[in-house]
Amino acid sequence: MGEEREAFSLRSLARRYHVDRAIISELVRSGQLPAARIGKRRLLVLRRDWEALLRRKAIRPDSNTVRVVEERLKREAAS
Question: Which of 11, 32, 37, 61 could form a disulfide with 65 if both were Cys (CB 3.0 to 4.6 A apart)?
Fold first, then answer.
């Protein structure tokens, strides 16, 4: 039997782990968090990939990622 794989959408991952969805999106965009595209818009992240990221990042994304996300959100709000 193969390993059971549990996958989350970005929204459900953010809800479950109490993390801002924009931060998760930026981690996927930067290539730090692998995600599979389902259809045109939906992204799925495997639980094991998320947990591996948490171990590497010591539970929190680095401050550069947070800064980039905050700047992007400000630009989007301004336009």
Answer: 61
Of 52, 61, 51, 47, the C-alpha closest to 19 is 61
Evaluate whether residue 37 is within a structural domain. Answer: yes
- CB burial string 9-47: b at 16+ within 10 A, e below: bbeebbeeeebeebbbbbbbeeeebebeeeeeeebebbe
Residue 2 counted as domain residue: no
- Model-wide pTM > 0.85: no
For the chain (79 residues), the mean pLDDT of every run of 10, in chain order, is 73 88 90 90 89 73 68 81
Domain span including residue 61: 7-78
Q: Judge whether 29 lies within some domain.
A: yes
- Coil, strand or helix at 32: coil
